[in-house]
Amino acid sequence: MTPDIADHRTERKSIEDRAQARLDSLAKPPGSLGMLERVAVRLCAASGTIAPVTRPRTLVVFAADHGCVASSVSLWPSAVTVAIARTILSGGGAAGTMARELGVAVRLADVGMAADVPDHADLIRAPVRRATRDMMHEPALDPEEFDKALEVGASAAKEAIAQGSRLLIAGEVGIGNTTAAAAIVAHICGLKAVDVVGSGAGATPETLAAKAAVIEAALMRASQMPGRAGLAAVAGLEIAAMAGFYLEAARQGIPVVIDGAIAGAAALVAQALEADSTRVMIASHLSAERMHAAALRRLGLEPVLDWGMRLGEGTGALAFLPTLDLAAAIVRDMATLEEALA
User: Fold this and answer.
1) What is the mean pLDDT of the chain?
2) What is the pLDDT of residue 238?
3) Are 174 and 64 in contact (CB under 8 A)?
4) Which of 15, 53, 142, 318 is the most buried (most CB within 10 A)?
């Protein structure tokens, strides 16, 4: 353990203890708010303060396509990615609708879609390449492309923080990305394809078999490649960008709410690159995708919601925000028992 990581862990433990003491002093029986109190402690630790705030907040949806779609891993063509991206920019999709209700700013970053979307005020146009390569046959990305995608995400986080955001969420769009995410989880956690394959945006027995075959081929290749090159070989452009987003948030001490399975895979990449980046992460929910539980165990994160969600785009994290808002208000603003009795 490096001195910096040891220092951060000591500081985090101190904040957790102070947050718990604050909660126990409030005008209520200790522990009577249950999971809400555990969320409050996690938020305080991620924020570095026992007076956390959850506004302003920003969701950046990272969009990219995947070459493995050519190997029949999805029922949907890559053209769906850009269609969903257009809907997000219009505010008409699930993420946009939820974000608007919750007062969350939304941006969309094109890290590598196969086609362009029209210019928009909330569009970050930063394609590294037009989709990944098909990892059934070759590495999805090379290390240079992987690093460029990381930087797209880091830049998006820097911009959101510079504009005042005190809480960040990364969402994603990309047909085929559950295949890449499952490969990442298996590669980092030492699992097999059968342990991580799920239905994604819908699957038949044939597409599930194709996903498993692609993942096994990619894992075999990545296992023979050194560190960063192995990660790049199984990565998605949007997943690497999300990892960069999380890494920059950690460097600046800004909490991030982790969405579902794809976000969990991105968080694993961030952890693999900078082990202590998990200190700012808060898990929102447990995805219906089987890989997600394995990712959260590795990250040491406890999900709060278990609603069978698997849409992505940041929707699970958005669904969790009201709970996070309440947790912040309770630990920050609620009267103590001593104040109530005065």
Assistant:
1) 95
2) 98
3) yes
4) 318
Q: How many CB atoms lie within 10 A of CB 210?
A: 20
- Name the H helices within the chain: 3-24, 35-47, 79-90, 94-102, 143-162, 177-189, 193-196, 205-222, 227-234, 237-252, 261-273, 291-299, 315-333, 337-341
pLDDT tens for 126-142 read 999 999 999 999 999 99
Asked if omega into 127 is within 30° of 0 (cis), the reply is no
Residue-wise pLDDT tens digits, 62-107:
999 999 999 999 888 899 999 999 999 999 999 999 999 999 999 9
Residue 34: exposure state from Cβ atoms within 10 A (0-12, 13-18, ≥19): exposed
Surface-to-core class of residue 111, CB atoms within 10 Å of its CB (0-12 exposed, 13-18 middle, 19+ buried): buried
Q: Which residues are catalytic?
A: 313
Q: Are 103 and 55 in contact (CB under 8 A)?
A: yes
Q: Is it the case that residue 121 has pLDDT exceeding 60?
A: yes
The residues pairing with 60 across neighbouring beta strands, listed in sequence order, are 107, 170
Residues 61, 244: Cα–Cα separation, whole Å = 13
Q: Rounded to 5 degrees, what are φ and ψ at 125?
A: -95, 105
As beta bridge partners, residue 257 has 169, 282
Q: Report the pLDDT value the prediction gives residue 258, as an integer from 0 to 100.
A: 98
For the sheet containing 167-173, what is the strand order? 123-125, 105-112, 57-64, 167-173, 256-258, 281-283
Domains defined along the chain, listed by start: 3-52+328-341 (1.10.1610.10), 57-322 (3.40.50.10210)
The pLDDT-based confidence of 6 (bands split at 50, 70, 90) is: low
In 279-290, which positions are buried (b, 16+ CB within 10 angstroms) versus exposed (e)? bbbbbbbbbbbb
Angle subtended at Cα 248 by Cα 200 and Cα 278, rounded to the nearest 5 degrees: 65
User: Quick one: 300 exposed, middle or buried, by C-beta within 10 A (0-12, 13-18, 19+)?
Assistant: exposed
Predicted confidence (pLDDT) per residue in 255-289, tens digit: 999 999 999 999 999 999 999 999 999 999 999 99
Collapsing DSSP states into helix, strand and coil, what is residue 98? helix
Residue 61 is given by DSSP the state: E
